Amino acid sequence: MDQSTIAQLQLLQQNLQNLLLQKQQLQNNLIELESALQEIKTSEKCYKIMGHIMVASPKDAVSKELAEKKEMNDLRLKNYLSQEEKLKRSIGDIQKELMQEKK
């Protein structure tokens, strides 16, 4: 077996694991944003944290800002999903190659 191929496989697996962690964090962030957007719809007042203080803010402005953040995170999630598929394909290809060499 080729040591460089095994090292490449290990590197791809580490990259995939890191990507999955980042994707999970992004998904958690999206859940929080969606929850905040839902809460804004039902509340009378809206507050925004700026630095170390909480300031009353117009609901429309906060809602727009959260929606923009959500849209950006949705795009990032699509990018992560694409990268995840590419890494999984590469890992699968290398694993097949290693199994062929082993036979």
Can you tag this structure with a few keywords?
mainly alpha, Helix Hairpins, 103 residues, two-stranded antiparallel ribbon, rod-shaped
Provide a quick synopsis of the model.
With 103 residues, this protein is mainly alpha-helical. It has helices spanning 3-42, 59-102, and strands at 47-50, 53-56.
Please render the helix and strand layout as text:
Elements: H1 3-42, E1 47-50, E2 53-56, H2 59-102
Antiparallel strand pairs: 1-2
Helix pairs in contact: 1-2
Taking the alpha carbons of the first and last residues, their distance comes to: 10 Å
H/E series: HEEH
The number of distinct structural domains comes to 1
Largest sheet: 2 strands, antiparallel
pLDDT < 50 stretches: none
Beta-strand content bin: 5-15%
Strands of the widest sheet, in order across it, are 1-2
CATH fold naming: Helix Hairpins
Highest-level CATH class: Mainly Alpha
| Number of helices in the DSSP assignment | 2
Q: What would the average pLDDT be, to the nearest integer?
A: 94
Could you tell me the number of beta strands? 2
Q: What is the SS-derived class?
A: mainly alpha
C-alpha Rg, in Å?
Answer: 21 Å
Q: So, CATH architecture?
A: Orthogonal Bundle
Helix content: over 70%
The shape is rod-shaped
Task: Outline the structure in words.
The chain is mainly alpha-helical. The protein has one domain: Helix Hairpins, CATH 1.10.287.370. Helix content is 82%, strand content 8%. The protein is built from two helices and two strands, in the order αββα. A two-stranded antiparallel sheet has the order 1-2. A hairpin with a 2-residue loop joins β1 and β2. The radius of gyration is 21 Å and the shape is rod-shaped. 1% of the residues are buried. The mean pLDDT is 94.
